[in-house]
Design brief:
Length: about 475
């Protein structure tokens, strides 16, 4: 498994493409904003960055809640020559502190008025510039944080040129039309939400975003706009199925987890005129490495699809781990050179997923080698949840695992061992958890016991815990 990385294809800069469009709209929870007004705000934000003497290649945090201003802030920071670091405004303080420490950021953009349009306010987080910074920051445009198997989010450093080239490669694969309409209920803190928002704007399109996913609202918007693109994770699609049929053509762009044959059939039954691109990719690879294109009546074996243009896929013979070679990949994890070298091996990015090729060359997913939980497309570390709940004064020990769920894909289950003489209940623990972490990380189900299930090595065994739960669910 050797060889150099493929050359980066030539591409127009994505911000230049967006700024050159003579039309385009962004709909958020407040009001529509024209792309012209958005780019005017980009200019205002860049002026504020200059006024505050923000340095080139300096990370700037953005408090994000899926507003048009968030898009303007991301574009402005990158175009200014600094580094955009989007963080959800409701992220726990622990997460904010971790990201600020990882990036060494001195500044943060926040919304001044929650319910009206305004230019984000640039606030000082720290007065001193870090004495040591990651050398790859000089080539970084955006840092997108993704859950790590060790329990702490990892900052993925992405390059502007690589992003531009990747966006235009995606456009080719999904047959993106001029002036597209894209319904985008995903969060802008994730790479899927980022490209599904910025790419349509590069083509003078209209993008619908919102602070929260609402199945009824998203369905209504989709039914209103024939030939639209819907970017959604499978759990969102499951929740939309009950809204009813749509007999108009549109295109689904989905990823974050594999689409099952059952869900695919249900979607085509309700929405027979749609076509669907199932996409596999990592933030680390620049996203969108494998594409599967389905239309009604075209049956094909279950798979993740085929490698995209410029992408190479290798399957390790012994472990079956899938590795990806791409010219669009990350520069590394910010401030974590050891984790970077563990992930990028001789220009191959190790995915942590086991897979194989079928007889037609499609990639078939076997399962995850890493322990991350995929809850509704959100990648969550069980270690992170365990480490936080171990801080509860009445908990002696804890174990977290995932269990298949018909709506979320995977649900979070937690086993709690109480300290001697202490009694806890699930609801109070969930409320406590909501004060310590983001709500989507709080366990869906909490179990109580006297000891943790142990594997053959004597260590707590997540798989054994999962087996106990699924066995109990069947009885």
């Amino acid at each position: 498994m050797t060889g150099s990385c493929p050359d980066l294809p030539c591409a127009d800069d994505f911000i230049t493409c967006i700024s050159s469009q003579d039309q385009g709209l962004i709909y958020d929870d407040i009001a529509p904003m024209s792309l012209t007004d958005c780019m005017s705000m980009v200019g205002d934000i860049k002026a504020e960055l200059r006024k505050q003497n923000v340095r080139p290649h300096e990370p700037v945090l953005i408090s994000v809640n899926n507003r048009a201003e968030d898009i303007a802030a991301i574009l402005a920071i990158i175009d200014y020559g600094a580094i955009a670091v989007p963080v959800h405004e409701k992220a726990h303080q622990r997460t904010w502190q971790h990201i600020a420490q990882c990036t060494g950021s001195r500044y943060k953009f926040s919304h001044m008025k929650p319910n009206s349009r305004n230019i984000p306010k640039l606030e000082h987080q720290a007065t001193k510039f870090p004495t040591q910074t990651d050398p790859q920051l000089a080539n970084t445009a955006i840092i997108t944080f993704t859950s790590g198997s060790t329990g702490q989010p990892k900052g993925v450093m992405l390059n502007r040129g690589r992003m531009s080239a990747k966006f235009q490669t995606i456009a080719t694969h999904i047959n993106l039309k001029k002036h597209p309409i894209c319904i985008m209920p995903l969060q802008l803190i994730f790479s899927f939400g980022q490209w599904a928002t910025l790419l349509p704007l590069m083509y003078g399109g209209t993008v619908y975003i919102g602070s929260k996913f609402d199945p009824q609202r998203t369905f209504g918007c989709l039914a209103e706009h024939p030939s639209a693109y819907l970017a959604a994770v499978p759990s969102m699609l499951r929740m939309m199925l009950d809204q009813g049929p749509i007999h108009k053509p549109f295109t689904i762009l989905t990823g974050g987890e594999a689409v099952s044959a059952t869900l695919r059939q249900q979607l085509f039954t309700q929405w027979p005129l749609m076509d669907m691109f199932s996409i596999y990719g990592l933030t680390e690879t620049g996203t969108c490495d494998l594409f599967r294109h389905d239309k009604a009546g075209e049956a094909s074996p279950q798979s993740l699809g085929y490698p995209a243009k410029y992408i190479e896929v290798h399957i390790e013979p012994k472990s079956h781990e899938m590795a990806i070679k791409t010219p669009f990949g990350m520069l590394g994890y910010v401030g974590e050179p050891q984790k970077t070298t563990e992930t990028i091996v001789q220009n191959w990015i190790m995915t942590g997923d086991a897979a194989h090729f079928d007889d037609k060359g499609a990639v078939v997913l076997e399962g995850r080698l890493k322990e991350l939980i995929n809850r509704g497309g959100m990648k969550i570390s069980p270690l992170e949840i365990e480490n936080i709940f171990r801080g509860h004064p009445d908990i002696a020990d804890i174990l977290v695992t995932s269990v298949p769920d018909t709506v979320l894909g995977e649900a979070i289950h937690m086993l709690v061992i109480c300290k001697m003489g202490k009694n806890l209940d699930a609801q109070s623990l969930k409320r406590w958890g909501e004060t310590q972490m983001e709500r989507f990380k709080v366990p869906d189900s909490i179990h109580f016991g006297e000891e943790l299930p142990l594997g053959s090595t004597g260590k707590a065994d997540r798989n054994l815990f999962r087996q106990h739960i699924t066995k109990a669910q069947k009885t």
